[in-house]
Structure formats: C-alpha cells, structure tokens
Predict the structure.
Amino acid sequence: MSTATSSRQGGEWLQSWDPENDQTWDKALAWRTLTITTFTLTMCFVAWYLPSAVIPKLNALGYSFSKTELYWMSAMPGLAAGLLRIVWMVLPPILGTRKMVALTTLLLVFPILGWGVRVQSPSAPYWELMVLAFLAGIGGGAFSGFMPSTSYFFPRRMQGTALGLQAGIGNLGVSLVQLLTPWLIGFSMIGFLGGSQAMKVAGKPNTQVWYQNAAFIWIPLILIGAAWAWFALKSVPVKANVRQQFDIFGNQDTWWMTLIYIMTFGTFSGLAAQFGLLMGNLYGSGNADIVSGSGAAAKILVEGYSVPDPVKFVFLGPLVGALARMLFSPLTDRMGGAIWTLISGLGLIASIVYTIPALTPDTSSAAALQGDFTRFLWGMLAIFLFSGIGNASTFKQMPMIFEKRQAGGVIGWTAAIAAFGPFFFALGIGIMGATLFYWVGVVWAVMCVAITWMRYARKGAPKPG
C-alpha cells in the first residue's frame, strides 16, 4: 500500500499526498474531508440504529411478535454491519474516498424508506422486516470504510483527535434517532407521506402517532450528504489490492487489538441496540412481575411504582459514549492511547459489576424496585462512558502500533468484528440471560486489561502507543 504519486489522472484523485510533510500538507482539504465524512457517517449511524427505535414499538403498533422474534430482529442490524464491514474495509483503496462515501450514503435511502413504509400498517411479514433490519446494517458497515479513508488525510500525531471526532460525532447518530423519534412521531408534519397509526400506550388507548416521520425525516439529509460528498471530496491514491490488504492478519497485534476493540465498541454498539428492550423487559411492561396485560388493559402490580418509558432514557447511553469518545480523543494524542485503554478496561470491569445486581429487579416493594432501576440506569451510563473512552484510545493506538500501510486495514478490520456487538448482545442476553452475559463481559474486560498492560501500557512494553 502506498500513498506515493499516482498515475491516475482527473480532478478526483490527488496526484501526490503526504500528510506527514507540513510544508505540502493541505490542512483545509483534510478538515473539509473530515467534516463531510463525519456528517455522512452520522447519517449512517442513524440508519443503522433506526430499527432499535422502531422495533420495541412494533407490537404497540399492531404487530404480534414474540420477545424472541423481537430480539432477533434487533440483532440483525449488528450481524449485517459486522459482515458488511469486512467488505467496506477494502473499499477505500479501490473506490477512493469520494465514490465510496457518496454511494454508500445514497444506499441508506433503501432501509430508511422501507421502515417508513412498513410502520404505517402492521401487515408486513416477519421475513420482510428482518430484511429491512439487515439492510440497516449498511450504515454500520460504512464505518470500516469511512474511518480508514479519513485517516489517509491526517498526520499520525493528529489521527487520535481526527478519528475520535469523526467516530464520536458519528456515534451521536444513535442518540439522535433515539432522542428525536418520540418527538417526531407525535405530529403530522409530513402527513402527506402517510396517515397516522393507533399505538397502544398504557393509560392512553389508541394514541395517534405518525411513526413514518421517524424514518422519512432523514431522507433529505441523506440525499444532501451524498451530493455533498460527490461534489466536494477528493481521493488519496492508495494502492492496495484485496490480498495486500489482508496481510494484516500475519501481525499478532491485529488480533490483540481486535479483542480489545470488541471490549470497547462491541460493548457500546451492543448496549446501544439493546438498551431499550432490556430496560422494558426488566423494569417495564415486559416484566410480568411488574405489569400484567398490555396496552390500555395493563395493570401495575407493584403498588406505587412508576414504570419507566424506555424512550426517555435510551438516548442517554449512546450520547454519553459518543461524547466520551470526542472529549477524550485529544487526551489520547497528548498522553498516548494505551493508558486510556487501560483505564477504559478497569472502568468497564467496575461498572459492569456494579450493574449486575440490578439485572434481577427486586419486586417486593416500589422503593426497592425504584432503587434497582436507579442502579441499573447509572450503571449502564457508566458502561457507556468507559466504552466511549476506550473507543477513542484504541483508534489512537492503531496508527501508532502499525505501519502506515497497515493501519487503515486494521482500523477497518477491528471495527468490522466489533460491529457484531448488537448481534452477540441480543443472542447472548436471549440465550444466557442478562446476568450471566454481563459476567462474561467482566471476564472479557479482565482479559483485555491484561493484554493492554503486558503488550502496550507497561514500561518497556513491546508496542507502546
């Protein structure tokens, strides 16, 4: 892989590009690229996590899926993203930044449009919604192309900040879709695109909503992003075929960093997709010990307990994780990434252990149940915080650990594997139960802390970064 002068001609391809040379580096072009790719990556995360805002409400809109079916549906975008990231990780040298970003952004229209159409009438077969959930994974797959592509434009000393800003702001797409959905569905601002639906809400039978708004509102922004990318971006002539890019697998640090990034981004993406369902099943209408019946007929069995509405809380976790990734990225450039990865791992161990007791709510009284919910919420937010810190620090480590020719590929690969987080979280919680699955998370984090200390963070480490 080389960024030397390219023989390819035309306005799209830069003829020579060396961000390590301050005298020739075009700083304005680099930051313009970061701005555009960050905006479009935010739209990618919106598309990826739109199902997580829609799926918990499908039965209230008239569908009749089981808990297992809903867990599998919510897992599908994560499965798709992990598979598609393996594809997208090899695209930057082949397509170039301009074509890859513009065309990928345009593809987001299909799942967004599909969900907007199918929430309007509870008649879609299960397989069709599973296909739409899979297509939403395009937004997650894009990450493994966008991030390495952006890294080509910045010197190594700034890549922690640049990639942290891009990923952190992009991650905000998760919070945007989860925060805005409850507001967007409440009025007929674009009612000409479809009529209202009657949604079953406890105490408010047949509440009128326009759930298609939660999808259709993003389509103009996606189209703007695709056009902006097509007309304003350039491409760095990085030469590498698929076989050359896959030589990263002969480097042991590729595998160590993959395990560590599963701990950080795998946790972030998995919990972001499952937060609402988990909260509802533990502390809301999904827990038969708390609520009996459904819809207007629901009855709260624990007297004095206020059932939380997940939509009021689920955006907070991804928001905390995304802000942590942005705010700690400059610190990783100053102090190195390894020390912050170590802090991330230790923080995850502590916060997961703190949260575990709240995964078995005490329904003996309203006070006990409310106390458990408070512990659950703060514990989850702490997990998001430390996973966000680790997301920033690992992306600083990789350009420092690997030679320039390999760093982009490793970023793409680790991101691809960690994107399976929503799939494995849904699968693990569904099969093991939340408590056992969280203990598995503790063991994984302990392993990653040991790897980070021995390989990267201790004095005299083989690969300090």
Observations:
- Residues 1-10 have pLDDT under 50 and may be disordered.
